[in-house]
Amino acid sequence: MKVEIWSDVVCPWCVLGRRRFAAALARFPHADEVEVRYRSFELDPGAPRRHQGDREERLAAKFGSDRAQVRAMHDRMTDMGAAEGVEFRFEKAQDGSTVDAHRLLHLAWDEGGARLQETLKERLQQGYFAEGEPIGEPEALRRLALDAGLPAAAVDRVLGSDEYLDAVRADEDQARRYGITGVPFFVVDATYGASGAQPADALLQLLEQAWEEGRTRSA
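Structure tokens predicted for DSBA oxidoreductase:
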């Protein structure tokens, strides 16, 4: 069974969604027959390598709110994360383009499959949300990728070129065909979908439904 997860590394709901999906998968009796792959989605396409200026003001303008509302949103998200063992340090976040991070996630898949891609995803999210790493800067991405176990030569090759850019764009094109406008978004066997950071119980139900109906089709 194939599960594809569209997400962005700077999306806090994607962090929670990843944790909840992992909890669901741990309870799924056929977990060893599930292949999980992350797909690319940019919340801020066309962003510079690093945004300048006040982050709260920029987000307030983006969402049509004000600084107080942005701060309250971050506080709520921080509390939700803490309840699930996730550290969000929004005051440290350094925003920027995530296209290179997505290219490295494709590299991770080719170098080490689902396990290495999952490890890199975790490291990128931790670097951005907890450590204040500038997620669009090549130096930071290189450091995080090496931490995750990617080979230095391959990381340097990708960051020094546009390798895997076509794969990122293909993921984004597929997201548009599916009608995905927000992330995380889970797709099972290109047939069953779930939007948002669903509770683990709901994601487990999705896996069970897809498994049972898949067996029925193949019978």
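The mean pLDDT is 96.
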